[in-house]
Amino acid sequence: MATVSPRFDDQGVRIGWQVRIRKKGYPQQVRTFRKKAEAEGWAKTVEAEMERGAWRDTTEAEATTLCDAFERYASEVTSSKRTPGPELSKIRNWQSRPIARIALARVGGKEVAAVIRDMEQEGKSPNTIRLHLAVLSHLFKVARTEWGMSSLANPAELIRKPKLPQGRDRRLQGNEEERLFAECAKAQNPWLLPVVRLAIETAMRAGEILETKGKSDDDGERPIQSTGLLWKHVDLNKRIALLPETKNGTARTVPLSSTAVEVLRSLPRSLDGKVFGTTYEAIHLSFVRACKRAKIEDLRFHDLRHEATSRLFEKGLNPMQGNRPNHAVIALIAVI
């Protein structure tokens, strides 16, 4: 049964209306509104939901701001990830916005859509915005399933997502490969040519081949994000390379063609166990300069992965199929 009573300040001035709902089997609900009609409307809705058995306690969701929820999410979820830095950066971005001061229960599609418009005006790409929305969406999922806030609706599922541009389809044309290899061979970084050749032969990502670093921390240090390919994970006799941690979080075995084996056999062995004694940042700079000297336009290092996968698919091979080594694929690639 709901009771609606006026609320007064210490001067005896009415400041609102308090609703108190007591119903057997449910915790007492108390809320104050400025207008009596709002108070009565809320009471009617809650009592109807209790009668249908559809009522969910929103007390915690009302008392927890989006900023506080993200802080808990960062501590319980993000901190357990292999590379928490990128996601933590997105969390801080959400926390810096006015929406962060709103209670979780009151964050809706309208509020999130406003943030999307702000991000677009700030020049963020559609993909970057989608990644921010993915973090927000997972926060609400965790809050509903693990934090007991089952009444929450996920606002990220209620809005129109930014449309992604068409993916790149850049491949090497004409004699671009010959020109690229020639300029890579002249580069000051001696690792450039073998790295480029291995990328084209294996379709491995930059972080799977080379050491990569994340953004600078508070001390100005850039933590290592990936160690790159290690000799202990390479078996030249079996013509395979093991990638224990890939971008999607699973291990993958990469078949090595005869050319890839040749490239790896020609490399010196370092004491730190890394196949390549350089970083992606250094290779990226050398690659850009080599392309410029070769007069090759609009070619990125990641395009080499697309070139490699396209060549393998044209040969009827799929190096990405599953996490275990496919011996038929390995046998076919070994003779290429």
Class by SSE composition: mainly alpha
Amino- and carboxy-terminal Cα gap: 79 Å
Fold-level CATH name of the largest domain: hpI Integrase, Chain A
Mean pLDDT value: 86
Please report which band the strand proportion falls in: under 5%, 5-15%, 15-25%, 25-35%, 35-45% or over 45%.
5-15%
What is the β-strand count?
8
CATH architect. name of the largest domain: Orthogonal Bundle
Gross morphology is: elongated
What are the low-pLDDT stretches, counting only 5+ consecutive residues below 50?
Answer: 321-335
Question: Which percent bin holds the helix content?
Answer: 40-55%
Quickly count the helices.
13
Q: Which superfamily, in CATH terms, is the homologous superfamily of the largest domain?
A: Intergrase catalytic core
How many structural domains can be distinguished in the coordinates?
3
| CATH C-level of the largest domain | Mainly Alpha
Q: Helices and strands, in N-to-C order?
A: EEEHHHHHHHHHEEEEEHHHH
Give me the Rg, rounded.
28 Å
- Describe the largest sheet: 3 strands, antiparallel
Query: Major sheet: order of its strands?
Result: 1-2-3
What does this structure look like?
With 336 residues, the chain is mainly α. It has three domains: 2-55; 62-157, DNA polymerase, domain 1 (Orthogonal Bundle), CATH 1.10.150; 176-334, Orthogonal Bundle (hpI Integrase, Chain A), CATH 1.10.443.10. It is built from 13 helices and eight strands. The strands form three sheets. It has a three-stranded antiparallel beta sheet, covered by helices on one side. The longest helix is centred in the middle third of the chain and has 20 residues, at 126-145.
